[in-house]
UniProtKB/TrEMBL annotation:
This is MoaD/ThiS family protein. InterPro entries: Beta-grasp_dom_sf (IPR012675), Mopterin_synth/thiamin_S_b (IPR016155), ThiS/MoaD-like (IPR003749). It comes from the Bacteria.
Amino acid sequence: MPKVTVRYWAAAKAAAGIAEEPYDAATLAEALTAVRERHPGELARVLLRCSFLVDGDPVGTRGHETVRLAEGGTVEVLPPFAGG
């Protein structure tokens, strides 16, 4: 199972109470399930509005179960935000 780093930004960071943390997950769907289990409540609600980058590439509308994660990869959790 690949080890990845999940990085939280803005409202996701506030809800998680941490900037980043490691997870073992083969797909984005598995990583997000683990995040929701570790952080029930506000972060789980914030995730519903987020977009995601995997190793710098936007996930877009792809099914999260189809997005494979690589060993040492990074998942960026990006809530919607105003400005620039």
